[in-house]
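An example makes the point: we print one protein in full, the chain in one-letter code, the fold tokenised, without further comment:
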Amino acid sequence: MRQWFEFQGGEFLRFSGDDDVWVFVNGRLTVDLGGIHSELIGSIELSADGNDSELCLQDTFGGAAPCQFIDVPVNPNGVNEIVVFQAERHVTESNYTLSLRGFNAPVTTCESVCGDGVVTPDETCDDGLQNGTGYNFCGTNCTPGPRCGDGVIEPELEDCDNGVNRDGYLVSEDSCAPGCKTPPRCGDSVVDFQSGEQCDDGVNDDSYGGCSSACLLGPRCGDGEVNGPEQCDDGNRRNGDGCDVSCRFERVPA
């Protein structure tokens, strides 16, 4: 039998048995009734500090040995263990009883400490003394503080934050790339062919020879429409067909 208890002082254990009985407290043998014998009755009561605890023994015929005081190794500020071993070796009868008093302490509760730097199951994070100190640190209640991915744009630290931040191209106002950065977009002066851009001059004002606001080629020589300084535009940029490579008229031999 094993029993764990929070030491209060005055804990009482009473036992009887007609063969081996051993009682250990925190691993130290305090009662030794080993061997085959008639029924013996005994008790042990822990003192206020464990020292001079009282051990009393008597047999079933009323014979009693003088009580003695023993030192029991108890931890007054922690959890203790008492263990009772009993073996029955008689072949005709068996006698054994055990009663405990004061060993059932109230059930304790464990509470996490937010700010100790240890993440417990009811905490999302715990940065210790840095809790609540700012961006990318844990909050004072051990839940994530301001960070990329919380759906709130932190000025001067984030370009955007839609809570997911996995967009590879700007397709709407709330598009956002990893790291809370603005994703590649039309107008960033980088041609993103994978996203369908034909050009990107950073201006994209649909000017002649430039790029459109959709990052498509703007009016130009060879688009089949006469615009800008063009005299003609036959949809190609070849000489010898009446409209030269500069979209100017040319003489064609009869």
Notes: The two ends are 120 Å apart (CA to CA). The chain has no helices and nine strands.
